[in-house]
Amino acid sequence: MDDADVTIGPVNLAARVDDALAVQALAFGLSEDEIVVRRHIVLRHLLNPGARAYGATTASGRLVGFVYGMPNDRAHWWSGVVEPYLRATGTADWLDDSFVITELHVHPAHQGRGVGRALITTITDEAEQPRSILSAIDTESPARALYRALGYTDLARRVHFPTAPRPYAVMGAPLPLRRKAPGRN
Description:
- The chain has 185 residues and is an alpha+beta fold.
- 31% of the residues lie in helices and 26% in strands.
- The protein has a 7-stranded mixed beta sheet.
């Protein structure tokens, strides 16, 4: 597949939620039951003020990646879970005036080709907040390597979400995200 034919742009995620969850299921390994639950979560998230989504689509219109996020609100469930972990590391102030990357997933056939980087930089470039936060499974992975390359650093590790079997890391980065690796011209 040629990623030169992939276009990054705003996407009506509510209308394409099933396409997005099909990508997430492949990229993240979701079961059918998890997809049903996540569908409701995504649709609810999109109702939050400032929520927006971008998609990576092929020339034929096939969705091969997506990202969505919103300005953080300490009243949101996610903030309530991560706040004690951030407080313990002295980084709870990151919950204020931050843009949260809620989900970022790329179809496995398109991973490692810059699609995820393009999605996350595009959405954060439009954020009015001075920084971005996200959570990722707390293991060394291509996703965590991408986030680090963009300037995200660990704010808290071994964060346990009630429904997740594995611990997560909460990461934060100043905006705009870094475009080049440090020390490179």
